[in-house]
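Subject: SURF1-like protein structure
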Amino acid sequence: MMRKHTRLIGWIAAVLVILAFCQLGRWQLQRMHAKEALLAQQVPARAQSLTLRQAQAAPPLLRWVEDHGRFLPGTILLDNQTREGRAGLKVYQPFQSDDGARVLVDLGWLPMPPDRVIPPITPLAGHTAISGLLAPSPATGLALGPALSSAPQPGVWLASRMPPDDLARALSLPTGSLGARVLRLDPALPGGYARDLELLPNTLPPSRHLGYAVQWFGLALTVLVVALVLEFRRHRRRRGTPRR
């Protein structure tokens, strides 16, 4: 009875490990396909610019936006963002166009001090013309822990990832008012922080994600093979043991 119990526990553990490895492999494949789809899109010419509302209503491709409106209060700081090998934060602020469309604007990258004390943030304000690339939010890896935590400065939130509805609640905006895309502010415009329009800055290329996926699926297969070999050996020992 004890051996049967131990065998059952062993198989349950093996199945759980296999499922975990397969899930990690599947996540890497999803990242690969998402990046391939993004790279397949050409950055739209500025002559094909749309208003923010038009771009949000169009199919979710890269869109160049030119519009007028005002920045809303509140700031989101996306943690663990690197630039030229340095750790830092991406700074986002909500914007509302004159016709009521809303979006988070990527104002650029801010270095994080070694002591991780967040520097003072000066939000943009007032009515302004705006232009930039409407693009997917940055990838932030696996969802572990809370997405948002309040920073010492009032109206500033530190984010580990960017679920739109959580961001809207933190910024006191209606649920559903922020989509899954952000407006990457034109580097030629004044204000904000260090920024560019690279599609996949400081991230792994699709081929690397495929390589990691193969590794995770390979580990899952290895666990399965080891479990089957142990089971086969157990059966051989049972057949070779004389009955009394």
